[in-house]
Amino acid sequence: MSRKLRFDLDVDASALLAANPEAFYSKAYLSSADITNNFRTVPGVKAKTKLATVLFGNILKASNCSFNADVDDLSAVEIDVCALSAMAQICQFDLEQSFVSLQMTKGSNGDFSVASFMDFYWGEMAKVIGQNIELIRWQGDTESLDETLALCDGYEKKLCNTVGVIGRYGGVITTSNVIAEMAGMIGDAPASIVRKKADLRLHVSTNVANAYELAAAQGNTLTYVTLPLGLTFLGIQLVVNEGMSDNTMVLTLKDNLIYSFDAEGDDKALKAINLADTVAEPLIRTRANMKVGFYLVNPAEIVAYNVCFD
């Protein structure tokens, strides 16, 4: 005896509005796959927190029966985050003129929460958020007249205002001076960090990276036409930062630049609402709440080029 089972599955229209929270926030917070490799990332920060540091003295002693350890220095760096909200909305009638119109329910009052479009929508929204965070990461300034930059203070402002950072100034970077200026950065850096090539990073703006590629290619014609140029200088990894101001460079160990963010529980703050079902307006509103913060430690191990340069 056999029995046939039949299942019907009705998908609520609101489900089509939902994004994959993990993928969305990964793309928004970590816009570059190398973020975790080039900065010290501190996730799960919802408010002020402290990062502990210990400076040990001479811990090796001659063996004997007495205990004569030095008093070591325990300290902490307080970090905070800036609360941000990404808000956007789209209109049904705009969608009806777009490429998704064929997938929409026929009629002027048809449902417009098309799954394929919403996948594209969430992906593009996360991409733009990531680009804005990258800009704030470096040029953020709460005193700025720019609405985006004023959301949080970034590395450039903090490097400018932190005592102990090694400043180097030179003006516009070109193909004729970029290698000399990079060499000068290495020369100004403390000897204690220069040999730590695995952890040392030379952060550069896009125009500096472009100038370096052209300058390096002049000494090796293969890089003009056949071989991609590896972005390293004297064995130090170059990190191209689109959010950096032009003609700017920062040389330091990757753990000295701290990037704090929330991420934990943010999936519950990812909202998409079809206002047609509530206030009879043909709009979809989306909102993503986030927290980010940018800090630095060990300023004596940081060389900044053209930061604070006017």
Textual characterization of the structure:
The protein has a single domain, classed as Alpha-Beta Complex (phage-related protein like fold), CATH 3.90.1690. Residues 5-16 have low confidence and may be disordered. It contains nine helices and 13 strands. The strands form three sheets. A six-stranded mixed beta sheet has the order 5-13-9-6-8-7. Strands 1, 4, 10, 11 and 12 form a five-stranded mixed beta sheet that branches. With 310 residues, the chain is an alpha+beta fold. The protein has helices spanning 21-29, 35-38, 92-95, 115-139, 155-161, 178-188, 191-194, 206-218, 222-225; strands at residues 40-42, 49-55, 73-79, 82-91, 166-168, 200-204, 232-233, 236-240, 249-253, 257-261, 271-274, 283-296, 303-305. Helix 1 (21-29) runs parallel beside helix 4.
CATH architecture: Alpha-Beta Complex
CATH topology: phage-related protein like fold
What's the CATH C level? Answer: Alpha Beta
Rounded to an integer in angstroms, the radius of gyration calculated over CA atoms is 26 Å
Overall outline: globular
pLDDT < 50 runs, ≥5 residues? 5-16
Number of helical elements: 9
Strand content: 15-25%
Number of domains: 1
Order of helix and strand elements from N to C terminus: HHEEEEHHHEHHEHHEEEEEEE
Biggest sheet statistics: 6 strands, mixed
- What is the number of beta strands? 13
N→C terminal distance: 86 Å
Mean pLDDT score:
77
Structural class: alpha+beta
Secondary-structure topology with pairs:
Blueprint: H1 21-29, H2 35-38, E1 40-42, E2 49-55, E3 73-79, E4 82-91, H3 92-95, H4 115-139, H5 155-161, E5 166-168, H6 178-188, H7 191-194, E6 200-204, H8 206-218, H9 222-225, E7 232-233, E8 236-240, E9 249-253, E10 257-261, E11 271-274, E12 283-296, E13 303-305
Parallel strand pairs: 1-10, 5-13, 6-8
Antiparallel strand pairs: 2-3, 4-12, 6-9, 7-8, 9-13, 10-12, 11-12
